User: Fold these one by one.
Assistant:
Number 1:
Amino acid sequence: MRSPRWKGRTGGSAAPNSRWRKWAVGVTVALLMPLGITIAGSGATASAAFDPAAFDFWVDSGMGPIKTRVLRAADGNTNRVVYALDGMRAREDLNGWEIETNIAEMLASQNINVVMPVGGQSSWYADWNAPSEFFGVPAGSGSSSGSGAMNVLSGGPGKSYRYQWETFLTDNLRWALRDRLGFNPNRNGVFGLSTGGSAALTLAAYHPDQFSFAGSFSGYLNNSAPGMREAIRTGMIDAGGYNVDSMAPPWGPQWLRMDPFVFAPRLIGNGTRLWIAAGSGRPGVTDAPSFNTLTGMGLESLALVNTRAFQVRMASLGASNVVYSFPAFGIHAWNNWQDEVYRMTSDLSANIG
């Protein structure tokens, strides 16, 4: 088991070093950057990790065979299950939670089975309208090297085929876990970071028998707010060269179906237990001055605005099924998200299985 690299590193109540005062203007600058940099980022640069206790679980789907990493509960139960969703820059080898954190080991030690889907860059874990393409030019017509805009015409996941991630998670994977591992297909938990947080709420809203608990960390929960679609468009181009219009046509039912602000009444009606979190955007004592930190400050500030709007929306509907967590320090980075899982775990444990 890897050491808990980030546990307890939220910065606590300690005031940030005075060096951050000169970054105050930088937060505003970050928010005004092209959001291809700021909306899709995931904080610090990832360095691959691998948990030998977890195992690969392959399941066929409309997208072809999809890998999921599974870590069994320490006590061997098959009743308590949680899905951990990645962010916009999800990779094809491992889920970011395994790459960057120790939460799978921690949750397994709390007798929760952990399911970590692998892949789905820029997918929002949604069923797309069509394979991603630009100007009617099919995938594979451009270079596959580089990143972001360099990849808009390249092939790859979600370009050579239509993303069908919601169907995969709620149908193909759900029943394969039951039939092959004996996992309970009902009253599972799901949580995610950034776009994965938005997706976790979407899955819970439309599949309440499967998900009794949903957590969003630094999620974009007001996607139909002015400017958000174009921000998302730019972000998806930067995160692998994907076209938001292939995911969902602008302002139609499919797009609105993905907006937590819009479907909030469903979450209340379902009685889904929710854990909604966003940091302040202020760096903690472990966040060294860097471009990544500045970007993470802007990202988290935007996520906080979205999350606060969702909080107001839920309050206006009389919601009583939500726990909110707004730590005084925290940028858009894995240390922040891992710490949030630690805070959430007892509530998750009490509301699944």
Note: The radius of gyration is 19 Å.
Number 2:
Amino acid sequence: MRRLGPGLLLALIAGFAFLYLPIVALIAYSFNASRLVTVWGGFSTRWYHALLDNQPLLDAAWLSIRLALVSATLATCLGTLAALALARYGRFRGRTLFSAMVVAPLVMPEVITGLSLLLLFVAADVERGFWTVTIAHATLGLGFACIVVQARLVGFERSLEEAAQDLGATPLVTFATVTLPLIWPSVAAAWMLAFTLSLDDLVIASFTSGPGATTLPMRLYSAVRLGVSPEINAACTIMIAAVAVAVIASSLLLKRQRLAAG
């Protein structure tokens, strides 16, 4: 195995330090006993206890979790159906347009996506709130879910489905009893990815939310504009931990899927 040279290794370490040292500093200062975020006053968990008394922040966190659960489920269902259409039905009229519309949120700036959805909701005279943010987040997560599930379907052994249909199973029964259990790790990974995207989204939620629909990232951003406090560091640390757990679980599921396929 070829080893990295000193220069390449140094560049790699510098890159990782640039990416992760600010996160490590944020986590460390969330345990700071001092109210000043730049002055270390000793180890303390007082700011995590203070979060329990911050009702607006807790309400925003609960709203973000509910949004993420609903939008991730909706995005995964629609993304799985889109992946089936793209992987199983070959070339059909409008396939290119359909594929482009599915993956458009992946490459489109979130500002454009949020503004477009805002204009849509205003034109349709839809009151902005929980469900408008849910639809927006589902739109964002749909493309990611479709790509994850489609990657599994491309290498799927279709002889198992054909055998089930030869034995009299309908297409729906075949999908529920054969296809879905075999692609379940990728579906679960797609759901976790969509959940993570919804949980930490700020830009799209800012455009599509309304009164009473302030998410946790929006609440944190509003608080940071008035000055960073150790309490905000504690909230961000909890959010980082939640996202990290979701990403690690998704990676483990994908690894398990590859090992099973191999």
Note: The longest helix spans residues 55-88.
Number 3:
Amino acid sequence: MRQERWNAGRIVDQTDRVFVVTGAGSGLGLATGHALARRGARVVLAVRDTEKGRRAAAAITADTPGARLEVRHLDLADLGSVRGFADALRADHPRIDVLVNNAGIMAPPRALSPQGHELQFATNHLGHFALTGLLLDLLAEGVDPRVVTVSSPNHRRGRIAFDDVDGERTYSPMGHYNQSKLANAVFGHQLHLRLTGAGSPVRSVLAHPGYVATGLQRGTSVRAVRLLYGRLLSPLAGKPAEGALSPLYAATEPGVRGGEFIGPDGAGELRGAPTRVPLAPRAKDDATGRRLWELSERLTGVRFPFPATA
């Protein structure tokens, strides 16, 4: 008998588990939080726009009465907001079971974070790096604890310009997006190695949603990207609920191992059921990993509780 392809209906019961999902006000994050709430999880919807977050919570509750949701403000581009979010969460929760590092922005005009870092690198990578470090002790108290970092197939096109990471000399909207997605992949892999070396119960897993029809591409400053993804390829795009399958699998499936990269099984990894997909060799390069880790600790001021050279 042919085995049914994995879908959200196969998520095991998540009652009493606490999930934090960043960027949960719309798109992939909302679909992820919705699916988890349906399976009984308590879901913290971490959002930059709290009014949008409240609307998202209302939509989930309308479908799933009794859903246990919290809407909390988090601006990943601002390290002060990241620390404030972590402190407030710590005051209310003795443990977190899963952190889903989902939020992201794509190819905007060059702008800087409040701390002076290129906005995509700050939002997509540095904010999640800092958030993970600040919550790691709460995750270590969790049940089957995991950090799921959402990257992209674009990480395979990325290069980390360590001598110009903020694009001060040369800025490319898509090039710096790809850089941030490679940084996600490097971070997730390095986190796995360091957690394993430290004997931590927390697993680090990477995921990507494939090509999903969300508002991500509409925010780009690159007209060709808007045309390609927003119009020409839109018939190929999956809905957010489909794109959320890979992060959901990474976050909940019992057999997932630390260090794995989960993406769609269809052609070009654009759509499909979750499966293990390859990381680019540069995402697993030790020298790149050490250099990015040290840079990220310096830029965020957040140090993880294991050696930087683990």
Note: The longest helix spans residues 173-198.
Number 4:
Amino acid sequence: MKYTGTTYRPPPEAFTPLLQVTAGCAHNRCSFCDMYRDVQFAVETLEQIERDIIELKLMHFRMPRVYLVNGDPFVLRAERLLEVVELIKKHAPECETVSMYASISNIMSKSDDELIQLRAAGINDLYVGVESGWDKVLNLMNKGHTAEEAYSQMERLNRFGINHRDMYILGGAGTGNGIENARKNAAFINRTKPQMIWFGSLTITKDTDLWHERENGNFQEATAREILEEEVEVISLIELDDVVFLGNHPTNTVSISGNIPADRDHFIGTLQQALDSGNAGDLDRVHVRSMI
């Protein structure tokens, strides 16, 4: 199998076969992220992809689902993505779903007809790094899209039956802004209706743009208490009838996972218990976090 650099995948895809179709990240300019800074973006050849599919098939025998890596494989032209799916189904005809990370700009680059074709081919369950529904935070993170652009693209995915699993960052707005960020995020989630929501906490790694902003005094991180309060607020405001909520990223102080609204009270109670029983000195400081 060929994998270039560190390979990342969402926790729900822990047991899904991973197939490299790109190396690195096409955007690679998010101010908080250094995941692909040491990998030049490249597109894998179809010949290498087919060799890896054959090897995956030997390893897994049945592959009803395949996850494409790395950073944002949905950047590929629709024609190339369809070729990849065709190769997967050539060797694993039982494959029903091909999933991957996708950015808002990736979705924007696809026509309506292309999205329809991709969904018909089995591409579904796109993991989208929304990060926030607040333009102030999106600008700070250098995401390359606005909240309204993100909404427009999510609406297109919904229209053509492509499920999206959206990722948000707790603490992304910095100290003093958590509650407002939670309200913006909840409003955005209620508009876009994802099938899954995944929340992690802001992690600033050395030499990223946001690290320099913090070192220069232009950004102040939220405390552990503020992040927990932000999470309570967003959970309380989500109005969807049935959505998977994952707050189990390793960067989070408290791990929770389940469904909203079914587990809402349990989530809030668990987070509130951490707020009420935690050491004040510990909660009121900025935690040093790791992405791993």
Note: The first helix runs from residue 46 to 60.
